[in-house]
Amino acid sequence: xxxxxxxxxxxxxxxxxxxxxxRVSQPSIVFLGALGLxxxxxxxxxxxxxxxxxxxxxxxxxxxxxxxxxxxGLLYFIxxxxxxxxxxxxxxxDETARPVIVEAPITFDLWxxxxxxxxxxxxxxxxxxxxxxxxxxxxxxxxxxxxxVIWLAALFLWAKDEVRFSAFMLSNVLxxxxxxxxxxxxxxxxxxxxxxxxxxxxxSRIFLKVGSELSPEAVKKGIDISGNDVAAMPSVHMMVTxxxxxxxxxxxxxxxILAGIYALLMLWGIVxxxxxxxxxxxxxIAMASFGWWTTHRVIRGxxxxxxxx
Length: 309
Hints:
Low-confidence stretches: 1-45
Shape: globular
Number of strands: 0
Oligomer: single chain
Strand content: under 5%
Mean pLDDT: 80
Order of helices and strands: HHHHHHHHHHHHH
Largest sheet: none
Distance between the termini: 23 Å
């Protein structure tokens, strides 16, 4: 839902929406960009890490001289802290005594695919062993890049809509912890692992094969960070992507369309790549929808209350 700016006293800070985009042209950003590009060219910091740090750092930089600094800083601290806890604890979710769920998602996907697994259908149609197509590379980039998209979306929302920015940050936190609980309670094997254990017919783990050719070090680092092969339910990739779509929807037509395309591509990529069953993705969408509805409703209500006062 899109909201227009409210008329308020100029001595107070905007409550419903805040547009910071006019400040992005300040000379300070030129200095930061030059500094970052210099670090990249000298090999001190990889491009992806610099882009992520820049996306996170800009809101701090432009909020440093007003009361928003504390609020923005707190939201980033909570989000990053929750993500660190999620990543750290999820690596232990496969070390419990609970049995790994293998058959249930297969049964559900067979029902959704009218007797065929969606992953099998997509790979039989599109994938050729030993031949890396452009869409295989696209899938790998989408899958690996979603952590950067989180901070890019946060930067955009911070610049456009204060309420949606806050709701996006906190809905991610809520979904991280719900997902973590599910990973511990219901460890679930992804399609590639079920295939590896001969529960289903051959499923290629395309991301691993393509990613190893594009950037072996990045793939190894990503797998080490994940640290858990049986955390397929729900799909956190789909959950985060759907939160990006929900938070960006109706703010701007072009951005809404791009976010929708991104969500559809992620849905295709994680199922085609053998990383998730379709049911894993649907659960991620459901969880993201619940998280967004809950946090946005609460934050919007509090903002309306403050504006009336």
